[in-house]
Amino acid sequence: MPVDLQALYPKLIHLMLDTVFVVDRDDQIVFVSDACQALLGYRADELVGTSITQYMHPEDLAATRASIVRVMNGQPHFDFRNRYVRKDGGVVYILWAAFWSDEVGARIGVARNVTALAKAEEELRFLAHHDPLTKLTNRSLFTDRLHTALHTAHRHHGQFALLFLDVNDFKGINDEHGHTMGDRVLCVIARRLEGCVRETDTVARMGGDEFIVLLTEIQSENAVSEKVAQILAVMAEPLGPEFGGMRMPSCSIGVACYPGDGEDADTLLSHADGDMYRIKRRRSEVG
Q1: Which entry of 131, 166, 209, 275 is annotated as an active-site residue?
Q2: Which of 221, 226, 223 is nearest to 261 (CA)?
């Protein structure tokens, strides 16, 4: 007995894990497969007759419209990604394969949920430029931002400052309280440093218990001194009760200002680092 493929095709479409959309030239959904409920949270009958654009993430609307124009001009798009807003308000990342059918008079798209993949890619991109413990900028991204600051300051005759911060006696925390507690203290320091600077500034962890702050567009060396005083005051605030009465360690901060202390990255970093160690030695001699 021959197989009735015409009767089988609709059932196959609704069995697909990916969602099939058929959308007319006015962006109205005329058909959507049953998988849409898992994808967007809507039943098929809720979507049919509505505009597909109303479900698109606002930030992706312009790029999506450009893809629609491309498809309707006869250029299939098999690798387009965008985001949609689900019925429950969540965001789903979608990979599309779409083409325009003159025979049907509509564009046909197959949508695959790639949210898990997109999140994993975002995490990998983040980890490539950030310290995994404190989530601060890492050495690689900081170096890029420092070179950008140098270029900008040189071009516009501006000023900026580097603050090199080292935690005093941090080894003692690890030895007495363990590395897990030491890591928690480093995260507290990271958040406090972020709270002391503007969004245009950069806080980075250079490794171990060393941090560096890039202060852009400073107005004077006095402003830098005030910022150092602010940071030292914030760092001196006690730790929360979850630390069991452990004292917050003190910090030593070295400073380098562009252009007075150097006009290239290596010179500035060396000056800030040297200044920080001079302060640590002075503290050790006094203590």
Answers
A1: 209
A2: 221
